[in-house]
Amino acid sequence: MAISTGGVREAYQAGGFHQYSYSELLRPFQASANRVKMLYKPSFEISGVREVNDEALEKLAKKYAEFVTQPFLIAIES
Question: Measured between alpha carbons, how far is 45 from 3 in angstroms, rounded to an integer?
C-alpha cells in the first residue's frame, strides 16, 4: 500500500495534529488482509507532498518502483 499526505510526518503521531500514526490509520486495511490470509507488507509513505518539487518527485518515483518490485520476505516458522 502506498500513502501520501500533504502534511508533515510529525502531524501523524500521538500528540500530533491528526493524533494518529500512519500505522494506526491503516489498521483496518491490515485487519482485512489478516482476515483473508493475505500477507500485509508495510506501507510506502510520502509526507508533505504539497512541498515536493519535480526533482524530489522523480526520486520518490524511483523509490516507489523499487518498493513495489521488492519481494516481501517473511520468516517461515518450522
Answer: 5
Please report which residue ranges of 1-78 form alpha helices under DSSP H: 22-25, 27-35, 54-69
Place of cell 500485509: 40
Predicted TM-score of the model (pTM)? 0.75
The C-alpha cell that represents 75 in the structure block: 520468516
Could you tell me the CA-to-CA distances from 47 to 11, 24, 25, 29 in Å, in that order?
10, 16, 14, 19
The total number of residues written for the chain in this structure: 78
d(CA 11, CA 68): 26
Q: Are the CB atoms for 50 and 5 separated by under 8 Å?
A: no
Q: Dump pLDDT digits (tens) for 22-73.
A: 999 999 999 999 999 888 888 999 999 999 999 999 999 999 999 988 877 6
